[in-house]
Amino acid sequence: MKVLWLLLFLSFLTLSLGGCADLSYLSKLAWHQGLILHGSIPIEEVMGDEQKNGEIIKKIQFIQEVKRYGEERLGLKRSGSFTKFYELKTPPLYIITASRKDRLSPYDWHFPIVGKVTYKSFFTIEEATKETKALEAKGFDTYIQSVAAYSTLGWLKDPIFSLMLRWEESVLANIILHEMAHATLYFKGETDLNEQLATFVGNRGSIEFLRERYGPGSKELREALEGQEDDLLFANWIDWAYRQLSALYETSISREEKLVRRVEIFRLIKEKFKEVKAQFRTDCYKDFDKKELNNAVVIAHRRYLHCLDRFEVLYDYLGRDMKRFLRFLKEVKSNKNPSNYLDSWMKERGLILNQKRD
Fold it and tell me: How confident is the model at residue 307, as a pLDDT?
């Protein structure tokens, strides 16, 4: 019944909105999501299964603690998410990013409810690869990322995926709060703003939770703090890389010449990364230098990390109160261009960003 309902719901939205999204694509999403809903089991069943590994049960209990903390202490939306469990062996979702080769210009997709989005999601690597090949044939750079968790923005009860339980507690707390942030506050058509806000809430919220749960000198808190520091370090590097490429693409030379010269720019960017890599405290970005760089790779990673300091400064200004912080951003949401409005609002109050921009 849930599968049928979701198929009909998405089909109706597509047709009623003039076919702004591909019905076949949405139907596939609905089918796979329906399978997940149908195959998910209550966490009580998992925790009562004597055959289950004790570490699994411990992690599920930990997730419930994080969820309660997010709802009660941080002001994140209460929901039925993370109350069911779904077993899988491969990532539940793959997302693709595409960009023009001669410009840092993300390819946009348009969907019902969520509006413009600068990535597209697939439940199988085969479907994601097929899409990237079609885009590459049209001359776009592409990039595929796998994710072990995602949010349906509060429309459905997102389960705990088994792969999530492999993470250390500092990472697990971060991701749970990240996805809860998406379900709490979503800016239609503002992909970057949504991801950057969720990244900030995940980082800051997990630090506060772990400090309270384990204490200021704990290993778990140290790992969370180091993870945030690495995010900011990587953000500085990805912004620097973005500026190097932008400078090239904004010149008046031909498209063909830009494509030739960008090869050297990418080489320099990777050399710069070697310097940054030596400063990382965690393993989060340890394999990034193995990726083949293109515009889509840069855009995809900058999407989550650009301007994180903007939220840190705002958070400080609002008394380091996450509930107040989220209430304020819900007010910002009512503006036509919330990201620009937020920047102007902060500038008017002389709020200076902390993050280095070298």
Answer: 85
Of the candidates 315, 336, 341, the one whose C-alpha atom is nearest the C-alpha of residue 327 is 315
DSSP 286-343: TTGGGS---HHHHHHHHHHHTTHHHHHHHHHHTTT-HHHHHHHHHHHTTSSSHHHHHH
Tally of CB atoms within 10 A around 73: 14
Say if CB 92 and CB 147 are below 8 A apart. Answer: yes
CA 47 to chain centre: 29
DSSP 164-184: GGGS-HHHHHHHHHHHHHHHH
Cα–Cα distance for residue pair 122/310, rounded to 1 Å: 31
Q: What is the pLDDT of residues 307-341, one digit of tens each?
A: 888 999 999 999 999 999 999 999 999 888 999 99
Its pTM stands at: 0.91
Determine how many CB atoms are found less than 10 A away from the CB of residue 35: 14
* 332 C-beta neighbours (distance < 10 Å), count: 16
* Cα Rg of the chain (Å, integer): 21
Q: What's the token pair of residue 159?
A: 């389960």
